[in-house]
Design goal:
The chain is an alpha/beta fold and about 290 residues long. The protein is about 50% helix and about 15% strand. The chain has one domain: Alpha-Beta Barrel (TIM Barrel), CATH 3.20.20.70. It has eleven helices and ten strands. Strands 7-5-4-3-2-1-10-9 form an eight-stranded parallel beta sheet. Helix 5 links the parallel strand 3 and strand 4.
Amino acid sequence: MQSLKETLRTAEEQGVAVGHFNTPVIEMVTAVIDAALSLNVPVVLGFTESERDFFRAQQAVDYVKSVREETGHPIFINADHTYKYENAKRAVELGFDCVIYDAAEKSDDENIQGTKEFVEFARKTNPDVLIEAEYGFIGGGSSIKDEFPEGAAITEDMMTDPEKARQFVEATGCDLLAPAVGNLHGMFKHAANPHLNIDRIRAIRQAAGVPLVLHGGSGISDDDFKQGIAAGIAMVHVSTEMRIAYRSALDKACAADRDQIKPYNLMQPVKEAVQAVVEAKLRLFNNL
């Protein structure tokens, strides 16, 4: 079976992207895994710091790896958006396939120095783990927002600069880079997500020399996805759309049978709703 690094390389060669889906509860975990198995495509399950606290980090790693060993399928686990250095170190030690050390909200110098130190630690501790860094502002929180956040990366001068991206990758040694290219975390009640800057994606990929990761995939148009992947996006993160499907399906299940107390009867339609979202994204990302 290919490693995550090899899987991303193959995806780029084939002009597709690997789907990354946040899975803080078991129904989402199984929905994502079943979607990937049904379509026979690789997938990455993501757990942020708060999601790892809720699920339990070691158990998340053990579960995903046990399914990978059982099925022989390329199913990977990522320690998503890790802001605390100690938490990032622990994720490496626990055996995550990828860790995002996110210091994007700090100064450039602090981001570079912190990421460089973390990469050096990871190389000594587990040479196989991939280290992703975020460079540029893409907002925060997988939620439904009323409006665009102040200072959001929606204009060219606020997006990641290709030359600075090259310098950042060279200085830190990170394996993957998450740039600001018009993408934003979350979705918006009264507005569509901004368009991706395809030319900027292409320029950053060429300059940085490492696979690019698109965060804030919820709400982005299918056409932007296709063009962005063709321009150099190797992995796409999706979370908010899954949360919306989860909540909507749960509300309907509870309203349909208020006397139902069997959790698996309530959660089956929830799992199916989340899986439908994931399958649609995987088909798009893999040109199926």
